[in-house]
Structure formats: structure tokens, C-alpha cells
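Moderator note: this is an archived Q&A kept for reference. The question asked for a predicted structure of one protein chain; the sequence and the answer are reproduced below.
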Amino acid sequence: MRVSYHGHSVVKIESNGKTIFIDPFITGNGQTDLQADEVKPDVILLTHAHGDHVGDTVELAKKHGSLVVGNAEIADYLGSKGLNTHAMHIGGSYQFDFGKVKLTQAFHGSSFSTEDGQIIYGGMPAGILFMNEGKTVYHAGDTALFSDMKLIGERHPIDLALLPIGDNFTMGPEDAAYAAKLLNAKLVVPIHYNTFPPIKQDPQRFIEMLDGQEGRVLKAGESIEL
């Protein structure tokens, strides 16, 4: 399994011949190395409905026939746009042909903003556990620190945890380092930082905060083999 980071919270997983994107915010993302017209996802997994996470989902899914997986509210909304969706919710898991997906809790908000200024409820935000090839990847989504991260790690031994460190909208480096300890992840990678001024952080400083765990800063386009 290959996991690549592409700026902000954009993560690509290549597993068993399938390409899975988590939160494909590409257009307007100054931290990414990707071009939307060059991305070909088989599957898109969404943590929540905010624009910097849903990103290019509609355009990509329509162009490539991608399956979009998210909470029921996201799936219903995007299904109304003509996308092929699979609805899930917090605590539920499903075995797809590309791997197993489980949604975990996250403490944040979730809404769609329409062009005419309407706010549409996007259901509960989530973290994502992706399991395939004997490996488990945890994308925490946008979240605060919460104590049940320890339970997530105990129930699902984590090979790679992708944790937001930007502060302001999510947990900051100090809380994210404590989250890594609760999760007991084998490898920790910071995400969701430096995209906008309020979330500017030094990712290397976060790595130095980790208590005996391996951490790695990935530049946009860099990958890890699990």
C-alpha cells in the first residue's frame, strides 16, 4: 500500500490497483502539487462537508465515475448532484472491494456553502479508518483532541496516523502530539497546516513533540510504503 500526501488534508492511497483519495481539495489549494485535470480517483472518501475537504469531489466523480463515500447527509446531498455515493455514519464500517472503511467520531463542524450563500447541514464530521493489505491508516479529518482516540487505537492498531496540527480550526501541535500518544500509531504524519494564515505551523516542531513515536513530515507529492 502506498500513501501519498498532497497538501492540506489531501491524501491518496494506492492499494490493490485502486486509487483512493481522501478529501480532494485541489483547486484553490496553494499547498498541493496536483492538478485536478490529472487526478483519476476510483474512490473518494470524505471526512466532512466543508469546502476545503469536499473540494473537487463533484467534478472528479462525474468525470471518472468515482464512488464517493461519506456520512449519510453528504451522500444524500452529493447523490442529488448525480454522483455515485455510499452512505455511512459514525461507528459503522463496510467492506468494499477496494478495502474496509470505518468512520470514527471527530469534533468539528460540517456544512456545504452554496453559491447563493446558503448553509446546508453536512451531518457529523468524521475520521476515517482505511484497512487493506493487513494495514490500517487513520485520517483524523478536522478534529479536536478527544480521549476516545485511545479506544480507536486499541480497537484498530494503526500503522499510519494522519493528524491535523493547524490549530484555530482543529487541534494544534501540542494536542496532536498527545493524540498520537493516545492512538499509539506506528507512524505519524501531520496534515491540515500552512494552507491559510490562521493555521500556519512548523511541522518539524510537531515531530519533535512526539513522545518516542516515529513521525515524518511529508512534502506535497511525497509518499510512504506500508
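Archived answer notes: The chain has a mean pLDDT of 97.
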